[in-house]
């Protein structure tokens, strides 16, 4: 009989435990510090749980900027179609939405968690709730057990560390997992927030709180050089900017800011138009609204709240009649509409990030098995590993695939 201890009952740990329990001979203990499993799973996808994405493998890897290539083997073992059929088999019907995102048909993350809980019970996994792992015990570079806050598990053959990252610590994943790995000699890549809103000191940004912009292009400038750009949707908040493209760009920005590099964004409000086309468009609008004041002559072009701010930034008097705007002023307006500049002072903290960038160095983990290259019998799975992806179901798929791979190999070894 093999004794397998899994630390952390999140997406990765649950899949690892279920897979390890497939062999009747194995005794599988799933240890969770909370009084219930899957706290973070419950809040994923705004309570709807975006379990995976139907994208193909190359697209998946592109959507995991944090060591996506490390996951090739794990994805080959258990990919999105496997996740979908796994959930269908256990009774969670799924549906595909915009951008290939897969959700439970019920739109309820709680259905996912409850069903997984029942699976653990049926698979005879011993679930130890309210049990926090304090130390992984080793002898001669081999795991032998786990010391917990309430006792000790001895004679363990395998320990799978799936204690999550460092974001949303109230869910139980507060970064202690990387500490458990680091005391065993594993290198920890510095933790940064990823998929996180960004802050600015600019008052005009804060005044636009709640305003969403669609079809804009945001470019990132790091130390004065363009480092990235993205097209899509963003939003202003009381502290700065957020929304899908900002979250996706935030990972690299947070890393740059941690190195004290200067970062600013430029927002192109009309990226589909060349400067000449935009100028022609302005001329048409100002002819149409020739006798209106400038503040009322841009209503076809921009959201209401943005107009006085754009005029201000372009040094144009809002009271000026549209037909009196000089060519120079119009050119300045074109430049402002295409280059709205926002200095970024910092990102929101790691605790508010959707995912953690950094964690256990992937070079010290065998990607085929998820086993530690330093300690026999130690496996890793999920966000505790230095892997992070964009929104769209990529992070949960990564956690499921790593969990499956660790559980299967721990069981087979
Ligand atoms: C608000 C939000 C929404 C998200 N939405 C999505 C989404 O829709 N789709 C998507 O793909 N990704 C989403 N993510 C990311 C995704 O939830 C995570 O990447 C994923 O849950 C990581 O799984 P995990 O099993 O590695 O860690 P976790 O789910 O964090 O699980 C780790 C578990 O380990 C437990 N634990 C920690 N330390 C110990 C210890 N010492 N002893 C015992 N137990 C311990 C924790 O309590 C926790 O239950 C979202 C994240 C957030 C914060």
Q: Give the ligands present.
A: flavin-adenine dinucleotide
The CATH architecture of the largest domain comes to: 3-Layer(bba) Sandwich
Query: Which parts are unreliable, with pLDDT below 50 for 5 consecutive residues or more?
Result: none
Number of helices: 13
What gross morphology would you assign? elongated
Could you say what the CATH topology of the largest domain is called?
A: FAD/NAD(P)-binding domain
Distance between the termini: 12 Å
**What is the spatial order of strands in the main beta sheet?**
17-16-13-14-15-12-18
Total DSSP E strands: 20
Taking all residues together, what is the mean pLDDT?
Answer: 97
Structural category: alpha+beta
What would you note in describing this structure?
- Helix 1 packs parallel to helix 13 and helix 10 packs across helix 12 (327-338).
- 44% of the residues are buried.
- This protein has 13 helices and 20 strands.
- It is elongated, with a radius of gyration of 25 Å.
- The strands form five sheets. Strands 17-16-13-14-15-12-18 form a seven-stranded antiparallel β-sheet.
- It has 413 residues and is an alpha+beta fold.
- 31% of the residues lie in helices and 24% in strands.
- It has helices at 11-20, 39-43, 57-62, 72-77, 80-89, 109-122, 176-182, 203-207, 244-258, 275-288, 307-313, 327-338, 394-412; strands spanning 3-7, 27-31, 52-53, 94-97, 101-104, 126-128, 133-139, 142-148, 151-153, 158-161, 188-194, 198-199, 212-222, 225-236, 240-242, 263-268, 340-344, 346-347, 355-360, 378-380.
- It has two domains: 3-192 and 356-412, FAD/NAD(P)-binding domain (3-Layer(bba) Sandwich), CATH 3.50.50.60; 197-348, Helicase, Ruva Protein, domain 3 (Orthogonal Bundle).
- The two termini are 12 Å apart.
- Bound molecules: flavin-adenine dinucleotide.
- The site of flavin-adenine dinucleotide has 40 residues, from helix 1, helix 2, helix 7 and helix 13.
